[in-house]
Amino acid sequence: MFVIDAGRSKTLGSDQVTMANVALKPTPSVIPNKLYFRIGEVSRIAGVKPHVLRYWETEFAVIDPKKSGAGHRLYRRRDVELILEIKYLLYEKRYTIEGARAALGRGRNKAVLTFQTAQQPVAPASQTALFESPAPPPAAPPVPTLAAIRSELEAILALLG
Prior knowledge:
This protein is mainly alpha-helical. The protein has 8 helices and 5 strands. A 3-stranded antiparallel β-sheet has the order 3-5-4.
């Protein structure tokens, strides 16, 4: 039997419970294809309790769920991905809140293997066909020459004066 008391380890029987054991329990790695998630759904996906999600909202400005008319939190897919990334940084990489906030601010550099990239599910074949041939980059607008800019400025000056 397991008992967790304010983050301290307790031993009952032959098993010991620590923060790492609780944090590393298996969680679903596939996020359902929905527009919005309620706090209970996000809690189940991330494997953390709802009060932890509410606390993380106060500590990480990037998590900003919308509120429904009834005041329920509605998380977008991007919010859920960020929550999974925060959980990975805090529980598995053992970052502090401040360190996780800084790591999220730096973005996804190669030194930080994020939960999202480590657990990225494979898209169905119909969706991958959409992204097989990337669109060519947009053509850069023509750069005006110095003579063209000068003639335009002289035309404007003539209109004004």
